[in-house]
Amino acid sequence: MTGWVQASKFSLDRRMITILLLGFSSGLPFLLVFSTLSVWLTQDGGSLAPIGFFSAVRTPYDFKFLWAPLIDRVPLPILSRLLGRRRGWTLAAQIALMASIFVLASTDPGRAPLTTAFFAFVVAFTSASQDIVIDAYRIELLEEHEQGHGAGSLVLGYRIGILTSGAGALWLASAFTWSEVYSIMGVLVVVGMITVLLSPEPKDDGGRQAADAEAVRKTGELERRLPHGAARTVAWLYLAVVEPFRDFATREGWLAILLFVMLYKLGDAYLGVMANPFYIKMGFSVAEIASVSKVFGFGATLIGALLGGIMVIRIGIFRSLLYCGILQALSNLVFAAQAAAGGRREYGELVRRHGSAVRGLLRRMGATPSLSDDVAQDAFLQGFQRCAEFRGQGTFAGWIKKIAARLYLKRVAKEARYVAEIEADQADVVVDRGGLMDLDEALKTLSETERVCVSLCHGAGMSHPEIAAAMNLPLGTVKSHVKRGLDKLRARLQPAHGSGGRSVHVG
Questions:
Q1: Which of 98, 220, 392, 460 yields a CA-CA distance of 20 to 30 A from 452?
Q2: 437 — phi, psi (to 5°)?
Q3: For the chain, which residues make up each domain, given as ranges?
C-alpha cells in the first residue's frame, strides 16, 4: 500500500503534470490528419481512393528522425534566448501547429482536395517536430530512475489528446461544421503553449556541451582542407546526422531492427485511416462512431497496455511482439472478412435506417404506398446482391436510391403506363401552419415527367445524363423538365404572406 501511495504522490509532482499536459499537446493533432480527417473527407463526398491516398500525409511521423538532429542542435534566434533551447523549440512548433490547423480548417476538401492534403501534411510535420522536442524535454527534465513513470504520464496525456481529437471531434461534428470542429481543435493547442510558458527549462546534463566540444574538435580537423564556415557546417552535419546512423549500422542485426520498426505497424496504420469511412458506409453516424469506436477503443488500448506489460514480464519482449503482431493482423482481417461477406446483419441495419427515405422518394415519383414498399424491397435485395459494386462513391443512401428509382422506372415502362396526371381540381393548394405548401402536395401539381425528373435529380441524386438514359429522353429535355419543375415548386412553396422564402429539397 505504501508503494501505491508513493506512486500517487509522484504522479502529482509538478514535472509529471507538465509531461502529462505536453503529452496531451502531442496526441491532439495526430487523428486530425488521420482517422478524423478521413471522416471529414467521407462526409464531404470523397471516394475511397483519395481517402486512402490521404493517409500518406502522416509520413512526417515516420521520418521525423531526419530533422531531429537539426532541432536538437540548432537554437532559435529569439525564443531559445528567452525560454531556452527546448522550450523555445516547443513553443515555436506549437505556434506553427496552431496556425496550420486553423488554415486546414478553412480548406474545402470537396473542391480543393490537394490544398487540404498539403495543409494536412503541414499539420503532421509541425506535430512531428513538436514530438521531437517533447521527448527530449521529458528525458532531460527527469532523473534516470524517474523515466519510466515519466513515459507513463506522457502516454496517458497522449491518449487523452487522441481521445479528444477522435471521439471529441466526432461528437462536435454532429453539432458543428467540420471547419468549426478543426478550429476548436486548433484552440486546444493553447493547453500545451501555456504548459511550456509555465514550465522550467531542463538543466543540461553536459551532453550538449560535450556535443558542442566534439563539433569544435571536428571543425578544427576539417579547417585544414575547408574554409572555417564550411568546416563548421560539415562537422555539424557529420556529428548530427552521419555519426548516429554510422553507430547504429555497426550494431548486430541493425537492418532487421530497422525493417521491424518500419513495417511492424505499417499495415495497421494505413488500414486504420479507412476504418471510419468503412463505418460511415455501413450507415453509422459520427456520434455513434465516436461513442463506440473511439471511447471503446480508448478503453481497449488501456487494457491492451496492461496485458502487454504482463506478457513482457511473463514471456519476454520478443515473443510478446510476435503474438501481438499476429493478433494485430487477425484484427485487420476481420474488416476484410466483414466486407467480403457483405455483412447481413449490418445490411439489415442499413435497410432499417434508409428504408423510409427510399419509400418516400418512390412515393414522390408517383408510386402508390404498396408499390413503393415492393420496389424498395426489391431495391434493397438487389443492393445486397450487388454490394461489391458499391465503391464508396457518395453515400450508401444515395446509391440505394438510384437503384430504387431505376427499378421503378423499369416497372412503369414494362406496364406501359405512368402514374396518372393529377387533375386540376385535385391540385388544391395546401398550406401548412407556417404559411408554406406541403412539399408532397406541391409535387402533385407538376406534370408526371417533371415530377419524376425532379425526384430523380434531387431525391435520388442522379445526374442529368443518368436520368436521360433511364427515361429514354434527350438530355436537353431532362434539363428543361428539372428546371421547369423546380421553378414551379419554388413558386408554389413561397409563403402565403411575406417576402421570405425557403429552399426546396426533394429527397
A1: 392
A2: -70, 140
A3: 12-203+251-341, 204-250, 342-416, 420-507
